[in-house]
């Protein structure tokens, strides 16, 4: 019988927050059967209990993998964020523990861009208030504060994948596009980059935010920035909840300065669909409130399920870390007749030579080797003759500064 690294039925895959069934199918088709899939996120204490025996964890934007949780994850081999954002994971802590993190950087880009364009048009027409009035038995037939999109200026903050895709779609309905980004970027179509956030806030009829959550974007839109916005303008946030000071936004809505807002993400979000959503924005009929569903389409979730599970399976089976968001990227071509050793170590001088020395002392010949380092860790994949799997692994465990090491046994090997 072929000997594999660790019996795949013993490898525990924990999927939270309703990760799509396509991920489960992918793991099963690759031979992994110990899969637990939950539909919600977990409290920190429950998460610590659950993650203890997991080899792989799949999360979305709600699950907080902080240092405390990660320290309890003694068997964890890799993390999959089944979404774009990775701010919910303490990436430096994961790196120091030798745990690579993967995500799906493009699979829901289109879904977010479509939603934002739709919200832009709906808000310009005053649909949220008219809809609310009709649901209450009223009839608000009026052209006042109801505008075409054509000729209005859309200001995009963060001109990355979503911002740029939105830019193209917005121009196709006649919006003029300006954008602000910390990096100089070539605009799509006729879109023009502006020199400062302040300039964008002052010039746009609709401001939409598409930045990641980082130190520089946390509370980036507060009282001062909102004060710069035009009388009768609109704000859209489908990025991260902590980018906008919600209390300050509620104040400008109350004052009538903004004609509307569309908010998909919040500083505090319910853990699941059964928990109450609390926000000072609930009282405004001219605000579209959506439960963080920018990327929640059937198409996006299915694609994300496939994409991220594939990355986790490839890492599990071959040690490949290409596209990891925190880890040195390594992909050694596969040599099915060899055993593969994976060695993750603190990035200090001399570790590779020590690895090669201990393997040499054991008389182990190296067939192929690929090392990459980043500021914290080094990751080396080594193929050795299949006579030496266990022996080589034991030798590697003795190397100073080792964080984690694994052997992937040759599929050509027989016990
Ligand atoms: N609502 C949702 O369901 C949903 C779905 C997908 C993504 N998102 C969020 O949207 C964010 C953006 O996604 P993306 O794929 O376009 O990311 P991206 O990395 O492709 O683009 C982000 C852009 O923001 C820019 N940026 C970073 N800091 C900035 C700052 N201080 N000021 C101005 N620009 C800055 C970057 O240079 C980059 O161009 C994600 O990080 C995620 O948090 C939300
Ligand atoms: O980062 C993302 O891709 C979005 O915020 C979507 O997150 P979700 O998977 O929790 O909907």
TrEMBL record:
CDD domains: ACT_3PGDH, PGDH_3
Reaction(s) this enzyme catalyzes, per UniProt: (2R)-3-phosphoglycerate + NAD(+) = 3-phosphooxypyruvate + NADH + H(+); (R)-2-hydroxyglutarate + NAD(+) = 2-oxoglutarate + NADH + H(+)
Any GO molecular function: (S)-2-hydroxyglutarate dehydrogenase activity
SUPFAM superfamilies reported for this sequence: ACT-like (SSF55021), Formate/glycerate dehydrogenase catalytic domain-like (SSF52283), NAD(P)-binding Rossmann-fold domains (SSF51735)
Any one Gene Ontology BP term: L-serine biosynthetic process
Domain ACT, residue spans: 340-410
PANTHER family: D-ISOMER SPECIFIC 2-HYDROXYACID DEHYDROGENASE FAMILY PROTEIN (AFU_ORTHOLOGUE AFUA_6G10090)
Protein's job: Catalyzes the reversible oxidation of 3-phospho-D-glycerate to 3-phosphonooxypyruvate, the first step of the phosphorylated L-serine biosynthesis pathway. Also catalyzes the reversible oxidation of 2-hydroxyglutarate to 2-oxoglutarate.
The protein's name: D-3-phosphoglycerate dehydrogenase
Species name: Kushneria phyllosphaerae
Taxonomic path: Bacteria, Pseudomonadati, Pseudomonadota, Gammaproteobacteria, Oceanospirillales
Originating gene: serA_1
């Amino acid at each position: 019988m072929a000997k594999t690294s660790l019996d795949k039925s013993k490898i525990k895959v924990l999927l939270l927050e309703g990760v799509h069934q396509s991920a489960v199918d992918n793991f099963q088709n690759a031979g992994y059967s110990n899969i637990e899939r939950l539909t919600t996120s977990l409290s920190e204490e429950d998460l610590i209990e659950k993650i203890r025996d997991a080899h792989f964890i799949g999360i979305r934007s709600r699950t907080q993998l902080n240092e405390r949780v990660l320290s309890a994850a003694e068997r964890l081999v890799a993390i999959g964020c089944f979404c774009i954002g990775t701010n919910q994971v303490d990436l430096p802590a994961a790196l120091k523990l030798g745990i690579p993190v993967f995500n799906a950087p493009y699979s829901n880009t289109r879904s977010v861009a479509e939603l934002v364009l739709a919200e832009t048009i709906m808000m310009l027409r005053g649909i949220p208030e008219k809809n609310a009035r009709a649901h209450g038995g009223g009839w608000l037939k009026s052209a006042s504060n109801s505008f075409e999109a054509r000729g209005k200026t859309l200001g995009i903050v963060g001109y990355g994948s979503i911002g740029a895709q939105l830019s193209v779609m917005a121009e196709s309905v006649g919006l003029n596009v300006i954008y602000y980004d910390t990096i100089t970027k070539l605009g799509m179509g006729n879109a023009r980059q502006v020199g400062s956030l302040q300039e964008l806030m002052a010039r746009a009829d609709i401001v939409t935010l598409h930045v990641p959550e980082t130190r520089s974007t946390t509370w980036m839109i507060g009282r001062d920035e909102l004060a710069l916005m035009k009388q009768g303008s609109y704000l859209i946030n489908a990025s991260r909840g902590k980018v906008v000071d919600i209390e300050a936004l509620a104040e400008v809505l109350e004052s009538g300065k903004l004609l509307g807002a569309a908010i998909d993400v919040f500083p505090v979000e319910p853990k699941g669909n059964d928990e109450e959503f609390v926000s000072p924005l609930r009282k405004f009929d001219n605000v579209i409130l959506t439960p963080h569903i920018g990327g929640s389409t059937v198409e996006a979730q299915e694609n994300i399920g496939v994409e991220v599970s594939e990355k986790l399976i490839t890492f599990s089976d071959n040690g490949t870390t290409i596209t990891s968001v925190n880890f040195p990227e390594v992909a050694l071509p596969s040599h099915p007749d060899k055993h593969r050793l994976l060695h993750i170590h603190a990035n200090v001088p001399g570790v590779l030579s020590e690895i090669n020395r201990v393997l040499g002392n054991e008389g182990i010949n190296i067939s192929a080797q690929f090392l990459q380092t980043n500021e914290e860790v080094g990751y080396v994949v080594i193929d050795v003759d299949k006579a030496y799997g266990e022996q080589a692994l034991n030798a590697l465990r003795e190397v100073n500064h080792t964080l984690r090491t694994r052997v992937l046994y040759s599929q050509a090997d027989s016990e």
